[in-house]
Amino acid sequence: MTSQAIRNPITDQLLTPANSAVIMIDYQPVQVNSVLSMDQELLVDNIVRVAKIARTYGLPIVVSTVKVKTGQNKPFIPELQAVLPRDGAIDRTTINAWEDTEFVEAVKATGRKKLLMTALWTEACLTFPALDAMREGYEVYPVVDAVGGTSTMAHEAALDRVEQAGAKLVSWVQLICELQRDWARTATVKPFTDILFDPHVPFLAAERRGSERRSG
Questions:
Q1: How many domains does the structure of the chain reveal?
Q2: Which helix (H) or strand (E) element contains residue 131?
């Protein structure tokens, strides 16, 4: 049971804490409340998990909101404010974040080429910057269970579009496992298990219910 030497964390083809950044776009109340492609509570839980994963593994996080400074929209949701600093969000007027100068500068400043992209909605605020970022040489990884659209059809069509353009779809569970990679990396094992085995994680709750029925 000997692990191989840790690969170069910058050039590794897989996601590592040293080659990836997290992008979060428009997780604001009005956008969350308009998502119909998945359960809204689960969506919020999942984006919070993504934020916790990023903090655990030290990934740069670029957070952006739309029309907060104009007074037409509220800041990002309180559940994310509990994990991320509220004053770090880049506010825009553009639907496509890649058409906002400060946003693009913030992404470039991370120095990372693998972008774990999350946004509301999938069909607009995820798709447009994902396509533009890939055109500029970035690898884009949409976290599919932490994004949502105004309908299931819109969400799925958008994911198909970005995947056909070269995006690499991941889930939050895949993400945390890919960053951890080895139980011998003990510094992050405790937060890994706290996030992955949270009692609110749906598949674990279902397994517990099944175990209770079998034991009863």
A1: 1
A2: helix 127-135
**What is the set of active-site residues?**
125
Write the pLDDT tens digit of every residue in 9-63.
Answer: 899 999 999 999 999 999 999 999 999 999 999 999 999 999 999 999 999 999 9
CATH of the domain at 131: 3.40.50.850
- The answer to whether the beta carbons of residues 147 and 118 sit under 8 Å apart is yes
Q: What count of other Cβ atoms lies within 10 Å of the Cβ of residue 198? A: 14
Q: Find where tokens 């919070």 sit.
A: 48
Residue 29 lies in a domain: yes
Q: What's the domain range around 110?
A: 20-182
Counts for the chain of helices (H) and strands (E), in that order:
9, 5
What is the largest distance, in Å, between two alpha-carbon atoms of the chain?
60
155-181: average pLDDT: 98
Helix (H) or strand (E) holding 57: helix 40-57
Q: What's the CA gap between 173 and 7, in Å, rounded? A: 21
What amino acid occupies position 2? T
- Is 100 contained in some domain? yes
Burial tier of 11 (Cβ tally within 10 Å: 0-12, 13-18, 19+):
exposed
Q: Tell whether 12 is covered by a domain.
A: no
Is 206 within a domain?
Answer: no
